[in-house]
Specification:
- With 511 residues, this protein is an all-alpha fold.
- It folds into three domains: 199 residues, MFS general substrate transporter like domains (Growth Hormone, Chain: A), CATH 1.20.1250.20; 56 residues; 252 residues, Up-down Bundle (Growth Hormone, Chain: A), CATH 1.20.1250.
- It contains 20 helices and no strands.
- This is MFS transporter.
């Protein structure tokens, strides 16, 4: 059995490096394709609703498999699990690169997702096992480098590649890295996390898949199909009912697939709530910025990606620094400062206009990412620190799953808010314009009428984006208030050891 001691004399840095590369290319691949969707639509002659499944389907598979990752991590060795996951990811990448039809490309993305869904929880569990609590901040800071930087540089990299090469190049550059990582892992990877001979409850897996899959699909489809679509509210209701049944089943089981009883630990529960709120707020910039800079301002996809690049670099630089600061000062100080920056920058985003300089947008987005970099990983690590070691797989699985679900819910809600506000404002502006035309009694030419209509739609959309950023500001304020309740914690067994040491020291002084 592998060493399960959290205080390993020498953490397996080589193994962690291999897992880092695997997780990086998996997460990078998740956002790499977004800019290429129009080119794929053109080549395969498919509609936007169909091509969107390349992203939605990827997220769905992640949402279905990540809850089961707690079982896989406890049941199978780290080496076997990573090799299987990386093999699936590599096979999916190769198939996507040579896909002759859209259906084949979609299947390839599903295969990729089935591999990547296991990598992040596996990496987090290895790091929680390999490092003692007092050094986890620095370790998880490096982990944050992967989790945050990969999706942040994805749009910039893909924008440049699409401008100069075919969309297939997005898979061609990932494939050699994935295959090389797989080859190295076969010879160099070791086992760190403990295994147990547990059985998979098939009913739990089915309920989990329907529950999380239904919610993700329903909320992801709401922006396109509308909330009144039977497919949207039907899948959300079915998903919610299945999820409730899943939770109750887990609470009755002695050895559940996903341990929900870990929410009895207050700091883990608080970290989950804050992470959900932050994920919703964070998606506002990821969704609204491309719409604003490309649709309203006419900025190219390449320049749009470059706008976000400094923010990605800042997050990459700050992640290890934030980890060290977490070890020294704890999560509350970092979270309060980071969320304050996030609230202020989100508020300024709610005031952007058609004339806001490009440089101002870069600075605002970069500072917003600076704030985010000080929050996500410290809050999550502090919550996981309170869990006993045996519950680490469940904690990481729940955190990753909730981020997927809250991201989908946040996207759907924010798109709905923006669309509703845009439509409402467009009606008001159109009524004002019509009143002015009637007052002047002179009918505008067809060209002037078209220009007026376009101007109204642009102003209405800008208003919708501003209002949605304001809503995002209020959401970030909720996370800021919750951050003041964060306390520094250690796992129960470490607190007991510390208590015994303190008592022993007092007794020695007394004697």
């Amino acid at each position: 059995m592998p060493n399960t001691n959290a205080n390993l004399k020498k953490p397996p840095y080589g193994m962690i490096a291999i897992l880092f590369i695997g997780a990086f290319v998996a997460i990078l691949n998740e956002t790499l394709l977004n800019v290429a969707l129009p080119a794929i639509m053109e080549e395969f002659d498919v509609k936007a609703t169909a091509v969107q499944w390349l992203s939605t389907g990827y997220m769905l598979i992640n949402g279905i498999l990540i809850p089961a990752s707690a079982f896989f991590i406890q049941r199978f060795s780290d080496k076997k699990l990573f090799i299987v996951a990386m093999s699936l990811f590599s096979a999916g990448t190769l198939l996507a690169s040579i896909a002759p039809a859209f259906g084949v490309l979609l299947a390839a993305r599903m295969i990729q997702a089935s591999g990547s869904a296991i990598m992040m929880p596996l990496l987090m569990n290895v790091m929680l096992t390999a490092f003692p609590v007092e050094k986890r901040g620095s370790a998880m800071g490096l982990f944050g480098l992967v989790m945050i930087t990969a999706p942040a540089i994805g749009p910039t990299l893909s924008g440049w590649l699409i401008e100069h090469y075919s969309w297939r190049m997005l898979f061609d550059i990932v494939l050699p890295i994935a295959v090389l990582t797989l080859a190295i892992s076969i010879f160099k990877l070791k086992d760190v996390t403990p295994q147990r001979a547990i059985k998979l409850d098939v009913i739990s897996l089915i309920l989990s898949s329907i529950g999380f899959g239904g919610l993700l699909y329903g909320f992801s489809s709401a922006g396109d199909k509308g909330w009144d679509s039977p497919i949207v509210y039907g899948t959300i209701v079915i998903g919610a009912l299945a999820l409730i049944s899943f939770v109750f089943r887990q609470l009755r089981m002695e050895d559940p697939m996903l341990e929900f009883r870990i929410y009895k630990y207050p700091m883990f529960a608080l970290s989950s709530v804050i992470s959900i709120v932050i994920a919703v707020a964070m998606f506002s910039a990821m969704i609204l910025m491309p719409i604003y800079v490309q649709t309203l301002r006419g900025i190219s996809p390449m320049d749009s990606g470059l706008l976000m690049l400094p923010g990605a670099i800042v997050m990459g630089i700050m992640s290890p620094i934030t980890g060290k600061l977490f070890d020294k000062y704890g999560a509350r100080t970092l979270a309060v400062i980071g969320l304050t920056i996030t609230v202020i920058t989100s508020f300024y985003f709610s005031k952007i206009s058609m004339d806001t300089p490009y440089s101002s947008l870069v600075l605002l987005y970069t500072f917003r990412m600076l704030g985010m970099s000080m929050v996500m990983m410290p809050v999550m690590t502090n919550g996981l620190n309170q869990l006993p070691a045996k519950n680490n797989p469940h904690g990481t699985a729940l955190n990753n799953t909730l981020q997927q679900v809250s991201g989908a819910i946040g996207s759907a809600l924010l798109i709905t808010v923006m669309n509703n506000r845009t439509e409402s404002k467009a009606k008001d502006l159109a009524a004002d314009a019509l009143a002015n035309v009637d007052a002047n009694a002179a009918q505008p030419s067809a060209q002037a009428a078209a220009e007026m209509k376009q101007h109204i739609m642009d102003q209405a959309m800008l208003h919708g984006i501003n209002f949605t950023f304001f809503v995002s500001t209020l959401i970030a304020c909720v996370a800021l208030i919750l951050a003041f309740f964060i306390k520094r914690v250690k796992p129960p067994h470490e607190e007991k050891i510390q208590e015994q040491r303190t008592v022993g020291a007092v007794e020695a002084v007394t004697e």
